[in-house]
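Entry for biotin complex. Fields follow.
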Amino acid sequence: MYNYLMDEQTLRSGLAELPLPAIQYFDNLPSTNDLALAWADQGAPDFSLVAADSQSAGRGRLNRRWVTKGGAALAFSLVLRPSLRETDHLALFSPLAGLAVSLSLEKLFGLRPNIKWPNDVLLSRKKVAGILAEATWAGQSANAVILGIGINVAPSSVPPAHELLFPATSVEQETGHAVDRISLLRSVLEELLAWRPILGSAEFFQAWENRLAFRGEWVEARQSGNEPLQGQLVRIDRDGNLILRDNTGKEISITAGDLHLITVDDIHLRPVE
Ligand code: BTN
């Protein structure tokens, strides 16, 4: 498939219309999140962007590795300076990014993405984008939130199946045609700018919930150091927690963790209390 060019000049001209205070672009970086964290410490203003064509030490959630091959993917991080209102909703920045990626895939390509709680973006039940949000703190208040987004664009961006914890796909595999990475990046940034002012609103939760993956299906939420929790996926609550219903009919609220689909054979039956 023909691959659209991405270099510093095409990136800057492609994003020229957007209110971005500063952009740093690299052909290769260890991790755009690491650079954005360092830049935030040096005073990068709100909505500064770091983008790289490839990453040699890309990081995923739960200390996992995230592979970004050159010419094939989008890997970028934003430095956000949360307003006083946003500090009440810090956990919602990563679903905000999941929503922005989903809306872009819908509007640009007519695809039907789902959001696997809390923020992975799925196409055809396979992961197409991952999000890593990290905060830096000044005492009790968040000084910056680094919102890192990785999108598999070309098929070559998808690691081999044996390296995957969850099945993955790419935007081009799902559309069947070549995709301009800069147009996709521009659209995601536009959606972030449009939805950020209503972070935590009823409209925000509705948009997230409408795209929630695996509703009604049996899932297991794995949290490091804790027993995995199993249940049927019901909804998200107003704090962004995931609500499951266990086999006794009791609702369980999950604040953090990694979601896995399970089969009937995996269900541990618990006695009704
Ligand atoms: C995940 O699904 O585990 C999250 C993956 C996040 C990857 C992105 S790529 C851009 C940014 N830089 C990183 O090192 N990670 C994030």
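NOTE: The radius of gyration is 19 Å.
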